[in-house]
């Protein structure tokens, strides 16, 4: 069996493909780091700990796989934490107001 040597054009296409996926990975890493920073801050403020493997991966940054499914889960997790923080702050403000009225 003889191996086929790729043409110059095939090599250029493959190089462009590699550059494209490397740029996408870099973009996802940046998005992850930004979200991770916000997630850690909110979890610490609320006194929360990671509840499952995915949350632990996000919190520690270990073994996080950059793909569209995980990035969507990351975004959803971050959005939910932001809502939880807003609700907790509102509940605290309501309790302060109630205690003033007493």
Describe what is shown at a glance.
With 102 residues, the chain is mostly helical. It has helices spanning 8-46, 53-60, 68-101. Helix 1 (8-46) runs parallel beside helix 3 (68-101).
Number of domains: 1
Question: Which structural category fits the helices and strands?
Answer: mainly alpha
Mean pLDDT: 94
Beta-strand percent range:
under 5%
Principal-axis shape: rod-shaped
Largest sheet: none
The stretches of 5 or more residues where confidence is low (pLDDT under 50) are none
| Structural Rg | 22 Å
Distance between the termini: 89 Å
Q: What sequence of helices (H) and strands (E) makes up the elements?
A: HHH
> Helical stretch count?
3
Number of strands: 0
Percent of residues in helices: over 70%
Overview of this structure, please?
- With 102 residues, this protein is mainly alpha-helical.
- The protein has one domain (15-101).
- Helices cover 79% and strands 0% of the residues.
- The protein is built from 3 helices and no strands.
- It is rod-shaped and about 85 Å long.
Features of this protein?
single chain, 102 residues, rod-shaped
Question: What order do the helices and strands come in, and which of them pair?
Answer:
Elements: H1 8-46, H2 53-60, H3 68-101
């Amino acid at each position: 069996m003889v191996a086929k040597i790729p043409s110059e054009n095939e090599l250029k296409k493959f190089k462009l493909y590699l550059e494209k996926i490397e740029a996408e990975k870099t973009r996802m890493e940046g998005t992850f780091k930004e979200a991770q920073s916000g997630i850690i801050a909110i979890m610490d403020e609320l006194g929360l700990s990671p509840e499952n493997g995915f949350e632990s991966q996000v919190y520690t940054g270990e073994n996080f796989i950059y793909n569209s499914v995980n990035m969507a889960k990351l975004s959803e997790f971050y959005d939910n934490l932001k809502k939880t923080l807003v609700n907790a702050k509102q509940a605290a403000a309501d309790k302060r107001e109630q205690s003033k009225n007493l």
